[in-house]
Amino acid sequence: MALTDGSLVSIKGFLRTLSPVDQVGADARAAMLATRSIKTASKRWAIDMAISMIDLTTLEGADTKGKVKAICNKAIRPDSTDSTVPHVGAICVYNDMVSVARKHLDASGGSQIPVAAVSTAFPSGRASLEVKERDTKDAIANGATEIDMVIDRGAFLSGDLEKVYSEIVYIKSLCEGKAHLKVILETGELVTYDNVRKASFLAMAAGADFIKTSTGKISPAATAPVVLVMLEAVRDYYQMTGQRIGVKPAGGIRTTKDAIKQLVLVKETAGEEWLNPELFRIGASALLNDLLLQRKKLTSGHYEGPNYVTLD
Amino acid sequence: MTFEYSSAPESKAIVKINSLYKLYIGGKFIAPKSGKSFITINPATEEVLAKVAYAEKSDVDRAVKAAQAGLKIWSKMAPAERGKYLYRIARIMQERAREFAVLETLDNGKPIRETRDVDIPLAAAHFFYHAGWADKLEHAGVGTNPKPYGVVGQIIPWNFPLLMLAWKIAPALATGNTVVLKPAETTPLTAMLFAEVCEQAELPAGVVNIVTGDGATGAAIVNHPDISKIAFTGSTDVGKLIARSVAGTGKGLTLELGGKGANIVFEDAPVDETVEGIVSGIFFNQGHVCCAGSRLLVQENIQEELLEKLKRRMALIRLGDPLDKNTDIGAINSREQLTKITELANSGDEEGALRFSTDCVIPSKGFWFAPTIFTGVTQAHRIATEEIFGPVLSVISFRTPQEAIEKANNTPYGLSAGIWTDKGSRILWTAKHLRAGVIWANTFNKFDPASPFGGYKESGWGREGGRHGLSAYLKGAK
To answer: What is the pLDDT of residues A23-81, one digit of tens each?
Structure first.
């Protein structure tokens, strides 16, 4: 079901039908859900689920083949001493590291782990559509099966919603049948929750398979109320269209506690159907080791130091 | 497998519960003259928590005498010194917050999340706020030389036991009065723990006196000739009796009574936050809230969408062990109250309204009522006009803002109301036309010691909290 035909009038008309978001109320709801106390068996389940949802990420200018191979190994066997630990959801790298990651995963028993590429002139999105097209095609050609594109925030904030929409539609057409499309809203630059809700619907209507909070390069990133608003958006979009769109918070989720709070948000907002790596991912790097330490603690009863999990 | 929350109970070990609580009179814990006592139970399990002394008229006499003696010290004390005692009480309440929270949850049945995050912090906040006023009363806008009433009699309800105690005692003490307070029969325990706090704070003897008992004990306070002011929070029926009793006696009187608050939702409301506000408006504290948003007035053109979201949200409400940190809705405070709620809800069925309840598992012991809404309710239904004081919401639709106002005001009560709209001008217009003492815009059930609270019409007389609340404890004040 098409919610808009892509023209500015139609997009604006569609977004106007959306309910506004009250910031104070959304903050309060997220704060209340953060008080959920997750212990014992439910904590164990949540830790393993969170591990399987991680898009293990390295997005540095200093990335090397060695670094990327190292995180691939970590992705396949997060804890080399415990084979019951699930593998992560995906590896997320820059365009030029896609083939390194893909080949290394395939060669090391990690062929089931997808490689996601950040694309479309990540993180700012400040490039022509031709450059964005090339960026995306390149990543897919090198084996990326997930494309994390950024929206044009400048266009969004200036009201050029047609441009934001048509870019997503175009990138989606390049991904069709080859890759999943995650659309990064960069909520830290959109600022208001009304904008987050509108951008979420715009991205979903344009064909996003996932909506993602942030690039990780802007603060604030995946705050709890922003994730709440996006989860409400995918829930409502499902009610409208029967189609489930995934959500990916990224940036600032570093501890087990943070990750479990995200899962609570999912459970009590979008619902249990979203509690799997097909519909919820967490973009993170340091988080994985904290999850592993907490996982060990549940078994051994004590919290080990950082030297008892591998660096990467 | 799904994400089920494992049980996460708060430990009971933090608080010591005595087997018998005596009366707190003149700074001492003393037995009632009759030697009688009654029991208080945990409404979530029906287990007996403790025996509590039963105060008769002669015990109330003793308490009033002690309060008169206390008044000699307290009213002559430098106001800043009074303030120091209030600050000390507030700090001790914060330090012992977990004890208070657990005890309140055990005795009342409300979830630990609410006692921990709402009742106890707000109770301490009331003491902090009023401590600051103690030496500034001449600047409170109530005249240049405000004077206390003297001995004040205070009777509080069971829905927010410690918080209502704080609402009563903090302003009374800050303004130089001494008090005789009676907690509710089913929830006396945190008041007795508060008496321990008074001891710990070395509050002069007789400034705070706490007598436990039932309606007869309350009547002895109301009719006592040496009490110069009565402050009561409870039902409108009892409030009317008290008003009759004190009429012509020259006693001061403030009453906080019932309500049938309208939560008004306009078509442009922020729907998800509104749903949260509706839930907090009627299911907070099991709906045992005088200012509950127990009537949902929703604009007809968004009713379907709103109710669908509300029902989905209601299915997430976690009913069960009040000590579990993840419990959202706890036990009904007493069998008597459960009977009343059940009877009124049944009248909704009989009169043709449509009931929707979540299918949560109801524990086998204790008093419970599943979160419930009635749709298709009109002004003629009992559930649209009578206060249910439980987790039952009546949904009524309207077509225009004018109609919303007419329906909202069409009640003998006038305590609270809520307005949900994205349009600022509509908030102001609606608030101006509503006859209710407390009006929330795009939120509900938010309390602050600086904000006066009280009702229009049969919802009460006078205000508590803020500058207005101070004037209720100062004689001759305007």
So the answer is: 999 999 999 999 999 999 999 999 999 999 999 999 999 999 999 999 999 999 999 99
Is the interface score ipTM higher than 0.90? yes
Annotation marks residue B256 as catalytic = yes
Which stretches of B193-332 are assigned E, i.e. beta strand?
Answer: 208-210, 229-233, 252-256, 262-265, 295-299
B306 and B370 fall within a common domain: yes
Same domain flag for B294 and B383 = yes
The CATH number covering residue A259 comes to 3.20.20.70
B157-183: buried (b, 16+ CB within 10 Å) or exposed (e) per residue?
Answer: bbbbbbbbbbbbbbbbbbbbbbbbbbb
> How many A/B residue pairs have CB atoms within 8 Å?
69
Whether residue B81 lies within 8 A of chain A, CB to CB, comes out as: no
Cβ-defined contact of A42 to B3 (cutoff 8 Å) = yes
Range of the domain at B279: 262-441
Instruction: Please give the positions of A annotated as active site.
Output: 148, 212, 248
Taking CB atoms and an 8 Å limit, are A19 and B271 in contact across chains? yes
B4 to chain A: which residues are within 8 Å by CB? 41-42
Give the separation between CA B68 and CA B66, rounded to whole angstroms. Answer: 5
How many other β-carbons are positioned within 10 Å of the β-carbon of residue A271? 17
User: What digits encode the pLDDT tens for the residues A271-306?
Assistant: 999 999 999 999 999 999 999 999 999 988 888 888
Residues of A in contact with B117 (CB under 8 A): 35
Q: Is A49 in contact with B3 (Cβ distance < 8 A)?
A: yes
| CA dist B141 → A115, B174, B467, B476 (Å) | 69, 15, 8, 12
